[in-house]
Amino acid sequence: AQSVSQHNHHVILSEAASLELGCNYSYGGTVNLFWYVQYPGQHLQLLLKYFSGDPLVKGIKGFEAEFIKSKFSFNLRKPSVQWSDTAEYFCAVIQDSNYQLIWGAGTKLIIKP
Amino acid sequence: DAMVIQNPRYQVTQFGKPVTLSCSQTLNHNVMYWYQQKSSQAPKLLFHYYDKDFNNEADTPDNFQSRRPNTSFCFLDIRSPGLGDAAMYLCATSTPLGLAREQFFGPGTRLTVL
Fold this sequence. Notes:
The complex is a heterodimer of chains A (113) and B (114). Chain A has 113 residues and is mostly beta strands. Helix content of chain A is 0%, strand content 53%. The termini of chain A are far apart. Chain B has strands at 4-7, 10-13, 19-25, 31-37, 44-50, 53-56, 64-67, 73-78, 87-94, 104-105, 109-113. In chain B, the strands form 2 sheets. In chain B, strands 2, 4, 5, 6, 9, 10 and 11 form a 7-stranded mixed β-sheet that branches. A 4-stranded antiparallel β-sheet of chain B has the order 1-3-8-7, with no helix packed on it. Chain A binds chain B through residues 30, 32, 34, 36, 43-46, 49, 51-52, 88, 90, 94, 96, 99-101, 103-106, 108, and chain B through 31, 40-43, 45, 48, 50, 88, 90, 94, 96, 99-103, 105-108.
């Protein structure tokens, strides 16, 4: 079965620290890749997405992610986090053969002020 | 603005009392999805429609049913809610064209079962 792995379930950082959240997927074909964010008590929002082209994609709020096809990875990065980045982050993949999003388990990010 | 709307945002029901959640979309997307999301977990797909073609996930309980009377609306019926069905229910839409199958999510309905 296809799967998406997020390496860290909980991450705690201080403000201004750099962030990298790992995401790996198992499907070998063409994929669309997404990072969603869920702030406390709020609904899912799209942070960024990769469909094709430049493998380095920029999203909202200073986030970016790099698609490395050879590593089946789509890691999320931010050079300097803020307290307001405290949220849960989900990586998700759609395969070219169907419509279903395959979700990672999520990473809960806590930023200490 | 084109969007996915869910009503109500909060629903309280009693154990065993049927409840219906609704979703509407102005995006004119062919595909609509219902997800269940429990606290600190990823959304779990319950079913999806491609137009009127209904697709049930294998592990979706029979207690959950869905209707899609037209392109714009989709309903989730929980016939006999149990305490374990308390969760956030998310509706999403997408277009099947090409590979750009980004899913657009509604704000969710938080279901409480007493």
